[in-house]
Amino acid sequence: MPSTTSPLRHSLKITTVLLLSAVAGASAHAQSNRAVTRPVGPDAGRMEQQQQPDGIVPSGGVELYQRMGAALPPAPAEKSYDGPIDDAYGAYQRGLYVTAMSKALERAEKGDAAAQTLVAEMMTKGLGIARDAKSAAFWYGQAAERGDPAAMFQYALLLMQGRVVQVDKVKADDYMRRAAEAGNAAAQFNWGQILISENPGDKGLELALPFYEKSAAQGVADAQYAVAQLYMSLKQVAPEKRERARQWMERAAKAGYDTAQLDMGIWYVNGIGGDRDYDRGFEWLRIAATRGNVVAQNKLAYLYINALGTRPNPVEAAKWYVLSRRAGLQDAGLEDFYLGINDDQQKQAIDAANRFRREPR
């Protein structure tokens, strides 16, 4: 039975995001050129000292460049399509890869950009044909020349990597920009990264923001997180956008981005972007901590000590401190707390830390 899915040019979704810093080089991210996921204002980076002991430090967050190698959340549901049926992509969706390759290759050789992109994708993954990175790069290049957004994005990544094609940053940037302008969500986020890396200070952030917004609207958690932070930090952001910062942060957190979960917790505890809510703050920090975020583990220990959003529990506080300390995060205030509890509580905390198993992301 023929597929009723949309043509390749409308349906093919490639959401892989590559670590661009491998190409741009460390110098491009240093000092004022750094694309930080937490470019926040003076009160947005720390848990306040009110009702809490000394030693609570700002979340380090993660640089967007460092985050970009992580898996993205599922793409938004496709819009309904009533146009002509695409047999090659329909076969691909049903897992009939040999059939899909046969149909797509025939069209690809005639210059069909969407079919060329599908052929490249299948060659990259080894679906219906043996893996062939060089041939896949050829077909991505052909489709990119013909303006297919997904192909332009993927070929830009290949030009940055330089593993199967020669490095060409100028050409890569051009394809990334064009793919972003054509609506590819991953390209929009990556192009925003490039703009930040090449334009120091607020200028780069302001240039990147429209692309982050478009990518965020398509469900990319990294972009949602960036939008939330920039809405809170940029001086020229309209008040109505600033009021939506917490909504974007929560969307990124719900997508499973642990740094967003960490900051969502901090925002609720500190009242950033809205009212204080210790219960919700505690819950988001707990989620991030159980998924292995070391800074969240550190923060969660303080919430247990100070009974913010939870009942006081010295053993739980010590457990989370032990876990964060094992990961290399030193904290003099928590060390003093740990040494102040009795030996039995220390033993219980260590036993609990030993039993801890990180929840899947």
How large is the radius of gyration? 24 Å
Low-confidence stretches: 1-76
Tell me, rounded to a whole number, the average pLDDT: 82
* Major sheet details: none
Oligomer: single chain
Give the proportion of residues in helices. Answer: 55-70%
Give the topology string: H per helix, E per strand.
HHHHHHHHHHHHHHHHHHHH
Shape: elongated
β-sheet strand percentage: under 5%
For the secondary structure, the number of strands is 0
- Helix count equals 20
| Alpha-carbon distance between the two ends | 37 Å
Which structural class best describes the helix and strand composition?
Answer: mainly alpha
TL;DR of this structure?
The protein is mostly helical.
Describe the structure.
This protein has 361 residues and is mainly alpha-helical. The protein is built from 20 helices and no strands. The protein has helices at 8-11, 21-24, 64-67, 87-93, 97-108, 113-125, 133-145, 149-161, 169-181, 185-198, 202-217, 221-233, 239-242, 245-254, 258-270, 278-290, 294-306, 314-326, 332-340, 343-355. Helix 9 (169-181) packs across helix 10 (185-198) and helix 10 runs antiparallel to helix 11 (202-217). The longest helix has 16 residues, at 202-217. The chain is elongated. The protein starts with 7 loop residues before the first helix and ends in a 6-residue tail after the last helix.
